[in-house]
Design a protein that fits this description.
8-stranded mixed sheet, double-stranded DNA binding, 2 domains, 2',3'-cyclic GMP-AMP synthase activity, Beta Polymerase, domain 2, Cyclic GMP-AMP synthase, chromatin binding
């Protein structure tokens, strides 16, 4: 947001005829199996006891990228150390300027979305039922993100990803189809999201030595923002002249989510991103206090860096 130096690239792998089995009633994590296991299936070597191994595939994916990096001559590129539980292979490019690129392996499935998403994507009053039905006909993705139980990762699980739908919504975000087009009326939705992301980004930077900030990420802000769009569907609410009011409303909603310890995943309602087992109460209270301080003092952190 402040400087475009982090990028995500999804590496899609189409997998025909898979079945997914929900892991431990999470709604978000799944074991992946093939409906048939023909010998010709090139992924058969990653199957263990009928389950497609997320850890084995991620290991191989990482190895391939590391080998390819050796062939890049003119740019200074290195692969960052693996982060526990992360589905990404992160490249650090140092020249001509420093940027990091997350390459994420994603299985693409053209089957119906899993049952846990049935009540999710609440865009009916905002983008309309037709749009929702059309979006739900898009493929869904599974990334090798391991479910965490206590301090242990379940290394064979895959997590649902709807980043392509999120991108689609952000690009076509208005009640009126011409919102923010060249000749259309402008709104401040994207500016609110940028400010929310920037706020969290700067707080994480400012308190990088505090473990309370470790669990928070821009996806939490993005999810809260989407819920705000569903709650306030009309373009007139997001008038650019009311940017400060809209931003304040977004901050208020995010603080409320922290306080009640509930932030529903936008696509998987039963998956609570702020549940006690994911982020402890102390961390949520710490972030709340920091955001409250910023709001009460006119966001001094925005001018700090």
């Amino acid at each position: 947001i402040s400087a475009p130096n982090e990028f995500d690239v999804m590496f899609k792998l189409e997998v025909p005829r898979i079945q997914v089995e929900e892991y431990s009633d999470t709604g978000a994590y799944y074991f992946v199996k093939f409906k048939r296991n023909p010998k010709a299936n090139p992924l058969i070597r990653f199957v263990e006891e009928e389950i497609l191994s997320a850890s084995k595939m991620l290991l191989k994916f990482r190895k391939i990228i590391k080998e390819e990096i050796k062939n890049i001559g003119e740019t200074d590129v290195s692969v960052e150390k693996k982060k526990p539980g992360s589905p990404a292979v992160t490249l650090l490019i140092r020249k001509p300027e420093e940027i990091s690129v997350d390459i994420i392996l994603a299985l693409e499935s053209k089957s119906s979305w899993p049952a846990s998403t049935q009540e999710g994507l609440p865009v009916q009053s905002w983008l309309g039922t037709k749009v929702r039905n059309k979006l739900r006909q898009e493929p869904f993705y599974l990334v090798p993100k391991h479910a965490k139980e206590g301090n242990v990762f379940q290394e064979e699980t895959w997590r649902l990803s709807f980043s392509h739908i999120e991108k689609n919504i952000l690009n076509n975000h208005g009640t009126s189809k011409t919102c923010c087009e060249t000749d259309g009326v402008k709104c401040c939705r994207k500016d609110c999201l940028k400010l929310m992301k920037h706020l969290l980004e700067q707080l994480k930077k400012n308190f990088k030595d505090r473990k309370e900030m470790d669990k928070f990420c821009s996806y939490h802000v993005k999810t809260a923002f989407f819920h705000m769009c569903s709650r306030n569907p009309l373009d007139s609410y997001w008038d650019p002249r009311d940017l400060s009011l809209c931003f304040d409303d977004c901050v208020t909603y995010f603080l409320q989510c922290l306080r009640i310890e509930i932030l529903e995943h936008y696509f998987i309602p039963k998956f609570n991103l702020f549940s006690q087992d994911k982020i402890d109460k102390t961390s949520k209270e710490f972030l709340s206090k920091k955001i409250e301080y910023e709001r009460n003092n006119g966001f001094p952190i925005f001018g700090k860096f």
